[in-house]
């Protein structure tokens, strides 16, 4: 922990224990610097951090004041979703494309984005690894690195699993063009048009689009915002619909942020094994935990080779490189062959650059910084939701990742809010993007993966007004 | 033209005009160097080139001799293929994977390879472009370069079309993970499972695999080894089967090497427009012409937006980078959306590196060298086929690319030869890889995209023996 972080933590502790009370003025930067024996910039950084966490607030020219005795967080949504238990074809793509299109403009506030800020990644370090590895590139590596992919990179990925206590052999890994490619290949390997596939409710829209593209039916299973899929409901769906696969995010699910506890993951793997149904596990956010330890993927409990585990470097190291992978268990050969016939291989220079970066070390340090930044930004976003959204708004409190799932009170239409917000330069991801039947109309997914700025704050103010107007609510009618 | 090339051309001219006759001894390197006023290494390189073209041959310690007054070429196959005119499901993948697997071993003589030698490409120059472009990379480019792809690269591609007289707007281009991705996306955009698709006979096996994967039926149309698809047969197939697409290679078709003349391409485009059937055009070899001018793609004749033109840099500039593109005409939006939902985007660093390389110039010079190398190697391969394969062997004479299509006499089984050759460290591509119903059992595709070495010559000798043994032919029973 850096000096400014421990100073901030000390002050936060004083606020939590009531030594400092709401409205109290903090010592000036100069006073604090003198009394604590630290540099003014350390004090400034500590205050900045506390402000980002909405514990203190600067008032023009008069210094910093405590604004909350304990963090005021929005209440959490408490109930799992309750989708229909029928299977159904999917028709959501048009809406998803409309929203995706909107985030490509740089001056839009990207609350609807699927990506964290590219400024959070060590692109200059990666550039060095790229330059070094292409300069030394053996021309024949263009053949050697064909699917299943660069051997050094597969070894580095296997080593990371080993560090987390999982035994994955490099030969079990198929390198892909990002996790999306891995997930699509896994789905193709185990389904045929007309089959049914279990997904979460709400689900990552790419799963919905994949089902739509391959003519598969979706079985949406109730999912709790804290600990994920309802296993009893899943058991009934398995018996009733005989699905050919489940597609799930076990850690920091997109959009809910839910994470299955270990014992639940174990039970999930056992249940699916009993039905001989493969689990396509999307674990792209697993490294972005705010706690003390990486949550295990379901793959860690797989003894039957039925878990088709997918991940990538796109969300935690190298956006744009498009390097992901699958560990498809007993379907490894099928997935590799599908990869060969669809896109042949991932880009050789990108594979070599990542292998070089991982071998040289520094990834864990980068991840620690990234997690810290995301956790601070999550806190700032939650506080802003409390400040600016109508009373009754609920928000998830995910232990990682970079999305909040917001349940709005009353009869709010987030599709309408999405359009109105976009007209004012703000993107959001409306709830219906995440459901086969366009449910979750009163929900929003909000991205907090970008640095908190005055523009973000303004965007939240605007959003709050749009929501209140849409739901005919009075913003003033809030808890103090 | 370099000094040694013009010297070689002078000598070749003397051989063609009969000034030098078969069996004549050439001046020694020392004599020629003195009499022509060039360095010994220039003479040596000229002789090496003439030897590669099989015009002269070195005999141990006694110098170089003319071996042919005019080139002895294998006879050409004269008839188009005659596939069944029924449509049929496809089942060829297992065989294709078996052959593809075999070329991954470096010490196999890669006559069955789908790729030219990676040594033919300017990888160090590309490495410089890669290093420069990742160092300068704007972090936000990871968002900007999302599908349809890097704007600078799309502009460079459009400029190359313009230089060939084609007007393609950068916005009409979708960047993909190589041409294979482009072709697959185009096919998905216009077909549904159960539809029929017209392909050439023989066809590139990736087309067969794509049809198999998507549950499409193949209509194989007779194709002439010199000028491509039989348009009368195509017209009948269009009327009878109402296919949803045609997938064709109009230039240096793989495996035949056939190229449709311009007027035939125009007629093809007109015919398909009359039936409102899109043409998925695979033009990956178009830049590898040996003549004076790039053959136009069918896209050049498209006024209806029905030609879905696909190409890449994998065969002519940057193997392993996996950067290709589609110009899908009226289906551009559908193809871009499919790209977004399957693999999101091509690798951003690879896109930026190619944009930088193309902007800096040098691509045309590289292409001239590449074409020259391939044309020399084609000549050497044809001569070796004449020398070592049984009488009655026919070979195509493609005007570009790096494949010969060999028709073997008698009752030869190339699947058997493939297995026997592989056991001796030689890969070949047996004819049945190129047909939905495993036809062309007496045919081989031979790759001449690798530098000619003593090992290649030995491999041809071995192959000739295997073929003769398989067909119970006498190798000695040949023209002198």
From TrEMBL, chains A, B:
<keyword id="KW-0804">Transcription</keyword>
<keyword id="KW-0032">Aminotransferase</keyword>
<dbReference type="InterPro" id="IPR000524">
    <property type="entry name" value="Tscrpt_reg_HTH_GntR"/>
</dbReference>
<dbReference type="Pfam" id="PF00155">
    <property type="entry name" value="Aminotran_1_2"/>
</dbReference>
<dbReference type="InterPro" id="IPR036390">
    <property type="entry name" value="WH_DNA-bd_sf"/>
</dbReference>
<comment type="similarity">
    <text>In the C-terminal section; belongs to the class-I pyridoxal-phosphate-dependent aminotransferase family.</text>
</comment>
<dbReference type="GO" id="GO:0008483">
    <property type="term" value="F:transaminase activity"/>
</dbReference>
<keyword id="KW-0808">Transferase</keyword>
<dbReference type="GO" id="GO:0003677">
    <property type="term" value="F:DNA binding"/>
</dbReference>
<dbReference type="InterPro" id="IPR051446">
    <property type="entry name" value="HTH_trans_reg/aminotransferase"/>
</dbReference>
<dbReference type="InterPro" id="IPR036388">
    <property type="entry name" value="WH-like_DNA-bd_sf"/>
</dbReference>
<keyword id="KW-0805">Transcription regulation</keyword>
<dbReference type="InterPro" id="IPR015421">
    <property type="entry name" value="PyrdxlP-dep_Trfase_major"/>
</dbReference>
<dbReference type="InterPro" id="IPR004839">
    <property type="entry name" value="Aminotransferase_I/II_large"/>
</dbReference>
<dbReference type="Pfam" id="PF00392">
    <property type="entry name" value="GntR"/>
</dbReference>
<dbReference type="GO" id="GO:0030170">
    <property type="term" value="F:pyridoxal phosphate binding"/>
</dbReference>
<keyword id="KW-0238">DNA-binding</keyword>
<keyword id="KW-0663">Pyridoxal phosphate</keyword>
<feature type="domain" description="HTH gntR-type">
    <location>
        <begin position="1"/>
        <end position="69"/>
    </location>
</feature>
<dbReference type="InterPro" id="IPR015422">
    <property type="entry name" value="PyrdxlP-dep_Trfase_small"/>
</dbReference>
<dbReference type="GO" id="GO:0003700">
    <property type="term" value="F:DNA-binding transcription factor activity"/>
</dbReference>
<protein>
    <submittedName>
        <fullName>GntR family transcriptional regulator</fullName>
    </submittedName>
</protein>
<dbReference type="InterPro" id="IPR015424">
    <property type="entry name" value="PyrdxlP-dep_Trfase"/>
</dbReference>
């Amino acid at each position: 922990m850096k000096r400014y972080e421990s100073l901030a933590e000390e002050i936060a502790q004083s606020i939590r224990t009531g030594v400092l009370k709401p409205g109290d003025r903090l010592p000036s930067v100069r006073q604090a610097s003198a009394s604590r024996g630290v540099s003014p910039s350390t004090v400034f950084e500590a205050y900045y951090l506390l402000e980002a966490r909405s514990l203190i607030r600067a008032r023009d020219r008069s210094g910093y004041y405590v604004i909350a005795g304990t963090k005021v967080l929005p209440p959490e949504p408490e109930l799992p979703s309750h989708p229909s238990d029928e299977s159904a074809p999917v028709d959501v793509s048009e809406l998803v494309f409309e929203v995706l299109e909107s985030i490509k403009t740089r001056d839009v506030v990207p609350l609807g984005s699927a990506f964290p800020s590219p400024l959070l990644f060590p692109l200059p370090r990666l550039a060095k690894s790229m330059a070094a590895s292409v300069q030394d590139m053996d021309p024949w590596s263009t053949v050697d690195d064909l699917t299943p992919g660069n051997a050094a990179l597969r070894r580095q990925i296997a080593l990371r699993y080993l560090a987390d206590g999982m035994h994955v052999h490099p030969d079990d890994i198929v390198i892909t063009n990002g996790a999306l490619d891995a997930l699509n290949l896994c789905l193709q390997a185990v389904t045929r048009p007309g089959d049914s596939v279990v997904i979460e409710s709400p689900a990552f829209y790419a799963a919905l689009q994949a089902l739509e593209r391959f003519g598969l039916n979706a079985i949406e299973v109730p999912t709790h915002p804290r600990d994920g899929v309802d296993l009893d409901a899943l058991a009934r769906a398995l018996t009733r619909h005989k699905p050919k696969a489940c597609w799930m995010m076990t850690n920091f699910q997109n959009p809910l942020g839910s994470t299955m506890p270990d014992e639940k993951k174990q039970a999930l793997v056992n249940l699916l094994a009993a039905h001989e149904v493969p689990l396509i596990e999307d674990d792209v956010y697993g490294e972005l935990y705010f706690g003390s330890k990486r949550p295990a993927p379901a793959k860690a409990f797989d003894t039957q080779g039925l878990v088709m585990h997918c991940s990538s470097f796109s969300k935690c190291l190298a956006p744009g490189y498009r390097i992901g992978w699958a560990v498809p268990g007993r379907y490894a050969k099928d997935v590799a062959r599908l990869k060969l016939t669809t896109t042949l291989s991932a880009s050789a220079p990108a594979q070599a650059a990542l292998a070089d970066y991982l071998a040289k070390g520094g990834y864990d340090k980068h991840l620690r910084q990234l997690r810290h930044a995301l956790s601070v930004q999550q806190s700032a976003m939650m506080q802003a939701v409390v400040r600016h959204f109508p009373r009754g708004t609920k928000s998830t409190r995910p232990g990682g990742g970079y999305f909040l799932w917001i349940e709005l009170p009353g009869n709010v239409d987030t599709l309408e809010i999405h359009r109105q917000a976009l007209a004012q330069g703000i993107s959001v991801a409306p709830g219906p993007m995440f459901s086969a039947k366009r449910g979750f109309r009163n929900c929003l997914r909000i991205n907090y993966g970008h640095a908190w700025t005055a523009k973000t704050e303004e965007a939240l103010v605007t959003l709050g007004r749009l929501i209140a107007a849409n739901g005919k609510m009075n913003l003033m009618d809030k808890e103090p």
